[in-house]
Amino acid sequence: MKSFKLAASLAVVLSAAPFAAFAQEEESPFSWEITAVSDYVWRGSSQSDENPTGQAGFTYTSPVGIYAGVWASGVDFGPGDPDLEVDGFIGYNVDFSDSVNFDIMLNRYTYPDAGELNFNELITTTTFAEQYTLTVAYSDDFGGSDTDAWYVAAGTSLGLPEDFSLDLSVGRSLFEKEFSEDYTDWSIGVSRSWGLLSASLAYVGTDGNGRDIYGKLADSRVVLTLSVGQ
Which domain holds residue 202? Predict the structure, then answer.
């Protein structure tokens, strides 16, 4: 279950390929990323039993903004399977104007050897002025439970000195009453990129309902993320 990342991480933001300043050739339609995280946290709850894990993703983007890809991460939900999450996704990204970008993605969460947990989620992300985001996600089979669930989140990334960014987000998970109580998650962090390399340090957590649902897996914590990709 990808963090917004969040998705975003959560979520994938794509644009038309620009031309390089000195080499007149288009960027590759393929992008990739390899990541190490101190804890895989998704919507405020650890998916790796509070342990470090690795992640990797690969995306192809067509010239018209349609994209598809795959993303994987180690997971740990307790004794037994699964040990791995593999997500396949397809989506479309478009600029509505100079200041508004819209992304819609269908994500398939799969867990090898634990297929009862597999489910689909439709995720939309609208970005305003390149730094404010509104995400709305819906599943009619959340976690393989045959239950409707919504997720609504807002975030921003603000410039800091020395090319650092201040990243803020808050989200709300909404469930059918018989399945679970609703809860809120949040994240406050700083990030920076150096060419192909990027790093972030975030303080994340949930409200009381989140901690009641997930226990210590939803306690507030610091998460370090190191990535390489293009």
Answer: 30-229
Would residue 176 count as lying in a domain? yes
pTM of this structure: 0.88
Distances (CA, A) of 7 to 23, 26, 31, 158: 32, 26, 16, 17
Residue whose tokens read 């390089």: 20
pLDDT digits (tens, 9 = 90+) for 89-114: 999 999 999 999 999 999 999 999 99
pLDDT digits (tens, 9 = 90+) for 107-157: 999 999 999 999 999 999 999 999 999 999 999 999 999 999 999 999 999
DSSP, residue by residue, the chain: ---BSB--TT-----PPPBPSSS--BPPSEEEEEEEESS-EETTEESSTT--EEEEEEEEE-TTSEEEEEEEEE---SSSS--EEEEEEEEEEEESSSSEEEEEEEEEEE-TT-GGG-EEEEEEEEEETTTEEEEEEEESSGGGSS--EEEEEEEEEEE-GGG-EEEEEEEEEEE-TTT---EEEEEEEEEEEETTEEEEEEEEEE-HHHHHHHGGGGS-EEEEEEEEE-
The enclosing domain of 54 has a CATH number of 2.40.160.40
Among candidate residues 65, 123, 132, the one with its CA nearest the CA of residue 100: 132
Q: How many CA atoms lie within 13 A of 216 on its CB side?
A: 5
